[in-house]
Please model this.
Amino acid sequence: MERTAQDIIIRPIITEKSMAGVANKKYTFRVATDANKIEIAKAVEELFGVKVAKVNTINVRGKARRVGRFTGYTPKWKKAIVTLKPDSKSIEFFEGMA
Model:
């Protein structure tokens, strides 16, 4: 079964740190945990019509949380920082936020 770009790119990450990277054409996304860098690059190119220079990935661990006497963990997830080529246009989604 072939995965679509929407299955790989789950959502953008909007934080102060990720917004600082937009000036350098670096965009941060939450991605599927089993997606590799090549799949992530193809998905971003397909969804946003841009050219990807490189992809850095980070596996974010689940943090311990407690509610009363019950303890558990938040889900682990994967983050991708996508750098675009200098001649590529920027992603419009992030334009109004930076």
Summary: DSSP finds three helices and six strands in the chain. The chain has one domain: 5-86. The first strand starts at residue 9 and ends at 12.
